[in-house]
Predict the 3D structure of the following.
Amino acid sequence: DLTKGVIDDAFTALPKHLSTKTKYNIQGIVSKVLKDAFDREDITKLPKMTRIVVADPRTSFIEPDEQEKILAEVYQSVMKVFFRFCMMHGCRPGEARALRWSDIEGGFVTIAAGMDQNEYRPCTKEREIRVLPIHPECLAEMEALPRTFGGYVFTLKGRPLRKEYVNASWRSARNKAGVAITCYEGTRHSLISQLLNAGYSEALVRQIAGHRCESTIQRYRHI
């Protein structure tokens, strides 16, 4: 009974305050459900959808001195080390939350997993594995953190850091520092931007960031 018209009407009825990106994400989920149903032959035809176009986001970033201002307002040691690790290695916060001590060896860190909200996922967003040299000062700070039975590097009360707590800690510190930037932009985006500004090649930056698609780096070209 699902037709293109029914689906279009459903998306038209979505709350007006939802962003185009949110509607795009919802459409992706609906499309995946219908595709799975079609592959299972639960439905005999795959209804079409009106394509939702999302403009490329404009990337914001901050310089190292502004990052240090934010870190100065982080008083919990594990959070300070966590944010510094993300800033210096350009990994996604979810990848850092999933980091285990077994991923660190011989001066290198292997980024091969991530957190889906607060659930461990044995792969990164791009499903790639990155091996990066770990900054020795950052490693020294990490090794001073308490160890837990789960083997995670960044923990609170023995458990991996939760997404909500990370975001709340970042907002509190950045507000005190007077720097308007999100955690993702202030860590991962900022390192990528800083490297490009310093003249490093896009190919090298893509390798560090784990961008599988060449077009992804284009969002930083306005910098």
Summary: The longest strand covers residues 108-111.
